[in-house]
Amino acid sequence: MKAVGFKTSFSLNNPDSFIDFETEMPVPTDRDLLVKISAISVNPVDFKIRQNSAKDKVLDKPKVIGWDACGIVVAVGDNVSLFKKGDKVYYAGDINRPGSNAEYQLIDERIAGKKPVTLTDAEAAAMPLTTLTAWEALFDRIRINDKDKGKSILIIGGAGGVGSIAIQIAKKVAGLKVIATASRPETIEWCKQQGADIVVNHRDLANEVRKAGFQYADFIFDCVDTNFYWDAMTDLIKPQGHITSITGSATPVALNKLKGKSVSFSWELMYTRSTFQTEDMIEQHNILNKASALFDRGELRSTLTTTLHGLSADNLKKAHAQLESGTTIGKLVIEL
User: Fold this and answer.
1) What is the mean pLDDT of residues 81-104?
2) Is residue 232 classed as helix, strand or coil in its secondary structure?
3) I need a labelling partner for 309 at 20 to 30 A (CA). Which of 39, 70, 102, 132 fits?
4) Does the domain spanning 2-127+272-335 belong to CATH 3.40.50.970?
């Protein structure tokens, strides 16, 4: 089968930053599905892993990355019970296994969901990673529930992949009042289209939120840079509120700034369940199926904005260049 990978962490201007190659088709065992992929999506995690996973070394065989896909099940392992051959699925994958930048991929059935019927393959492929991340951040980390309806959430980075669907889920599913950040006219408009009640400029975050009429936000979801916005977040979070972030930090986070307000803080990483094979790993299957139903009812919509055609090293380079620019609105997909 055809795949696209890399042997070392080159910058994109190097002709070997991605390479096309042929490899054997994998065979499903246990709870694995063998999926013939029809579309893949590219996320910031893709270029971060490309830049860092093969630094100062050359791998024996190309590393295949990619953690968003839509396709059809063509074979199943002996212990599969959730799907059968012919089922259409969408999923975000497992960071410790070969990725979706290939014609076929093995995926554990517990982290795959039923593809939304009303979405095209490209529209569906855009959604698993960001939907899982946003859903887990809101409902597993912050633990928002029915009693929180009407409360406020500040989403930092509203026009990005995660921020876009987080706005929709926070508004349509959780029933929150959504304050999103954006600075360009096109990103401001995009956030409003996703359902944000208020859009503020992140360049003077605390003052902008206050000018919008909010002394505090009940919850804050950071999708950009934890430490860069830390002072603003600790200022804006409501006493006994909750901050969650997906961005990590190269330096320690000053958690002591939360003590006076008794504020909770949590990280969200979508790969935790699959990496550690947690007891509730099947929750990602359940979340994707819940989201699928919401897409089919029109309560959520795909955030796909850009589509490239054909699995190739050249298209992966174009996609990664776009993501590295930091200006992407919504999601970028490659149709096979």
Assistant:
1) 97
2) helix
3) 132
4) no
- Residues near 31 by beta carbon (within 8 Å), at least 6 away in sequence: 77, 79, 80, 108, 109, 110
For residues 39-54, average pLDDT = 91
Q: What is the CATH number of domain 130-267?
A: 3.40.50.720
Helix orientation angle between 313-324 and 44-52, rounded to the nearest 10 degrees: 100
Nearest to 110 by CA among 254, 278, 235, 255: 278
CA-CA distance, 159 to 101, in Å (whole number)?
A: 25
| Residue 13: CB atoms within 10 Å | 8
Alpha-carbon distances of 145 from 117, 194, 263, rounded to whole Å: 28, 21, 18
Whether 11 shows a pLDDT value over 90: the answer reads no
- Beta-strand pair 152-156/177-181: parallel
Summarize the confidence of residues 216-235 as an average pLDDT.
96
b/e string for 178-194 if b means 16 or more Cβ within 10 A?
bbbbbeeeebbebbbeb
Predicted TM-score of the model (pTM):
0.95
End-to-end Cα separation, the chain, in angstroms: 13
What is the location of CATH 3.40.50.720 in the chain? Answer: 130-267
Alpha-carbon distance 91 to 200, whole Å?
Answer: 32
Q: What is the pLDDT of residues 304-333, one digit of tens each?
A: 999 999 999 999 999 999 999 988 899 999
Token digits of residue 134 = 């946003």
Average pLDDT, the chain: 96
Q: What is the pLDDT of residue 248?
A: 82
For residue 56, pLDDT over 90 is answered with: no
62/247 Cα distance (integer angstroms): 27
Which residue in 73, 238, 44 sits closest to 160, CA to CA? 44
Question: Is residue 207 pLDDT above 90, yes or no?
Answer: yes
